[in-house]
Specification:
The protein is of the alpha+beta class and 484 residues long. 40% of the residues lie in helices and 21% in strands. The chain has a five-stranded parallel sheet, covered by helices on one side. The structure holds flavin-adenine dinucleotide.
Length: 484
C-alpha cells in the first residue's frame, strides 16, 4: 500500500506537496483557514479570508524557477492558470531596449520566464488542479494544535475541528504551516532540538492593488525601471492577472515618519507619483485603485534545522526556510522544497536516512540563496541608516562597491546579453547567486563596462533613468519632517 502523507497547511508549500506527492501517495492537507470561495479569480481576491496566510494580498512575483517547474511538470496547471488570466512574461519580453533588436533566443532563455498573477489567483487555480487528483483530500477550518509522538517517531497531528480535537495518523507528517509555525515549539517541548538562525529584513511592506481602466493598456516597456532602491524606500510594480497590478513600497524600519504616513492611500499614491517607474502605471487615465493599502511587518529571514533523530517528520516552505519577501523567492523555494521531499521519499526508505538526505538536499538547493540574501539585507540596512545621516561620508570601499554596481553591473545587464543571462539565472533561482559573475567571460565583460567612459554608456542607453527623488526632496513633497 502507498504511504499516507499528512500535510499541515495548504498554502503554497502544502499545495506543492500535493502536486509533488499526489501522483504516488495518498495526501491529506489540513488547514485552519476556510476553503476558497466558489467563483473566479475576482471572487477569490475579494472574498477569500486567509488569516493563516496574511501575506496573501501582498504583491507576489513568481520567478523562473517556479514557472519552469510548472511548465515542465504540470503543463495542464499552466494551461489552467493562463485560462484564469495569469500571464507568462518571457526573458525576451523583459529585455532592456538596447538589447531588443539584436536578440536571438539561446537554450536556457525559456527558464527565465516570470508568471504574472495575483497570489490569490495562483492559489485558487493550484488548489482546484490538485483537487482533481483522486488521492488528494483537503480538510479546511481545521487547526493543528499539536503532535502525536512515540519516542523519536512523529505519528500524527492533533487536529481541532468543530470544537473537537482528534488524532490524525499517517506514515509521513509534513509541517507546511508557514512563517508562524508552532511545530518547533511543540517539538522542543517533546525534547527535540531545533536550531534557528534569524536575520532581520529591516523593512516593512506596503502594498496597494490597482486595475487598468477599460480601454487602457499597461505602459510601454521603454526602460523606465519598474523596481528599484532609493535607499530610503524600495519600490516595485507587479503586473498580475486580469488587468490587475500592484505596487509595493518597502520602507526601512528606521524610517518612522515615512512608514506611518504611507498607510494613507493618498500618501501611498503621492509617493508613487514621485517615482517615474510607478507614476506611469497609476496615471489616473490608465488605472484606478482596487484595494486599500495593506501593511506587513515582522519580516525576517529564518533558517531552521530539525533534530536529525526525528523520524517521519519534515518541514517545508516558510516553516523551514523563510526569506525576505523583497527577493520574491518564497513560493519558488516552497514548491522546490516539496519536490525535494518527493525525491527523498522515493529514493530512501529508512526514516533516519530520509531525514539526513532531506537536510543535505535542502541545504544544497536553498542555502546559497539564503546566504546571499542575508548579506544583501545587511548592506541595505546599513544604507538605510546612512540615508538618514546628513554627515555621512562613504568610505573608499563603499564608493567602489557603489560604482561597481552602478557603473559596471547595471550597464552590463542593460548592454550585454551574456551578462544579463548570467545575472538573470541567479535572480530566478536557477544558478548559485554567489557564482553568477564567475561564468567564463563575465568578469572581463564587467570590467570592460566599468572602464567604458560614462558618457558613452549614457549615449548607448546603458544607464536607467533616475529612479526617483532624493530622500529630503521626497519628505518635502509629502510635507513630512525627518526626525534627524
Ligand atoms: C509581504 C510578503 C510578500 C511576499 N512576496 C513574495 C513574492 O513576490 N514571491 C514569492 O515567491 N514569495 C513571496 N513571499 C513569500 C511567500 O508568501 C511564502 O514564502 C509562501 O507563502 C510560503 O508558503 P508556505 O506554504 O510555507 O506558507 P503559507 O503560504 O503562508 O501557508 C501556510 C498555511 O498554513 C496554514 N496554517 C498555519 N497554521 C496552521 C495550523 N496551526 N493548523 C492548520 N493550518 C495552519 C495557513 O492557513 C496557510 O494556509 C512573500 C511573503 C510576504 C510576507
Amino acid at each position: 500500500m502507498s504511504e499516507h502523507v499528512l500535510v499541515a497547511g495548504s498554502g503554497i508549500a502544502g499545495l506543492g506537496a500535493a502536486l509533488a506527492l499526489g501522483g504516488t501517495r495518498r495526501v491529506t492537507l489540513v488547514d485552519r483557514d476556510s476553503a476558497a470561495p466558489g467563483g473566479d479569480a475576482e471572487d477569490a481576491f475579494a472574498h477569500w479570508e486567509r488569516r493563516g496566510a496574511t501575506q496573501l494580498r501582498h504583491s507576489h512575483v513568481f520567478l523562473g524557477r517556479l514557472t519552469t517547474l510548472i511548465q515542465e511538470r504540470y503543463p495542464d496547471l499552466l494551461k489552467d492558470l493562463t485560462e484564469a488570466g495569469a500571464r507568462v512574461f518571457t526573458f525576451e519580453d523583459g529585455l532592456p531596449p538596447p538589447l531588443r533588436d539584436g536578440y536571438s533566443a539561446s537554450p536556457g532563455d525559456e527558464d527565465l520566464s516570470i508568471l504574472f498573477s495575483r497570489r490569490t489567483t495562483l492559489e485558487l487555480v493550484m488548489r482546484r488542479y490538485v483537487l482533481r487528483q483522486h488521492n488528494v483530500t483537503f480538510l479546511n477550518d481545521a487547526g493543528v494544535r499539536g503532535l502525536s509522538i512515540d519516542g523519536t517517531r512523529v505519528l500524527g497531528l492533533k487536529v481541532e475541528r468543530d470544537g473537537t480535537t482528534q488524532d490524525m495518523l499517517a506514515d509521513v507528517i509534513v509541517d507546511a504551516t508557514g512563517r508562524n509555525t508552532s511545530f518547533p515549539d511543540w517539538l522542543r517541548e517533546a525534547g527535540f532540538s531545533i536550531s534557528e538562525e534569524e536575520r532581520p529584513a529591516g523593512i516593512l511592506y506596503f502594498t496597494r492593488h490597482y486595475k487598468l481602466k477599460d480601454g487602457a493598456e499597461e505602459p510601454v516597456r521603454d526602460g523606465t525601471p519598474g523596481a528599484g532602491d532609493l535607499g530610503y524606500i524600495k519600490f516595485g510594480v507587479f503586473p498580475a492577472d486580469n488587468r490587475h497590478f500592484s505596487i509595493t513600497l518597502a520602507v526601512p524600519e528606521i524610517e518612522t515618519e515615512l512608514r506611518m504616513a504611507v498607510m494613507k492611500p493618498e500618501v501611498f499614491d503621492a509617493i508613487c507619483d514621485a517615482i517615474p517607474g510607478c507614476a506611469r502605471w497609476i496615471d489616473r487615465d490608465r488605472a484606478g485603485p482596487a484595494s486599500q493599502v495593506f501593511a506587513m511587518g515582522n519580516l525576517k529571514s529564518t533558517w531552521r534545522r530539525f533534530d536529525p533523530r526525528l523520524e517521519g517528520f519534515f518541514a517545508i516552505g516558510d516553516a523551514a526556510v523563510r526569506t525576505n519577501p523583497l527577493y520574491g523567492r518564497g513560493c519558488s523555494a516552497g514548491i522546490v522544497h516539496a519536490h525535494i521531499l518527493r525525491e527523498v521519499l522515493d529514493s530512501v526508505q529508512n526514516p533516519l536516512a530520509r531525514a539526513a538526505k532531506f537536510e543535505i538536499d535542502t541545504r544544497k538547493a536553498l542555502r546559497p540563496f539564503y546566504d546571499s540574501m542575508v548579506r544583501q539585507d545587511k548592506q541595505a540596512i546599513r544604507r538605510a541608516a546612512n540615508e538618514r545621516d546628513p554627515h555621512y561620508k562613504p568610505s573608499f570601499r563603499a564608493r567602489a562597491i557603489k560604482s561597481l554596481v552602478e557603473d559596471a553591473i547595471g550597464p552590463a545587464t542593460r548592454g550585454d546579453i551574456g551578462t544579463l543571462r548570467a545575472f538573470s539565472r541567479a535572480f530566478h533561482m536557477i544558478d548559485d547567486p554567489n557564482e553568477w559573475w564567475k561564468k567564463p567571460g563575465t568578469v572581463a565583460r564587467l570590467l570592460g563596462f566599468w572602464a567604458t567612459p560614462e558618457r558613452i554608456k549614457r549615449e548607448r542607453g546603458f544607464y536607467p533613468p533616475k529612479f526617483g527623488p532624493e530622500r529630503a526632496e521626497m519628505l518635502e513633497r509629502l510635507q513630512l519632517r525627518s526626525s534627524r
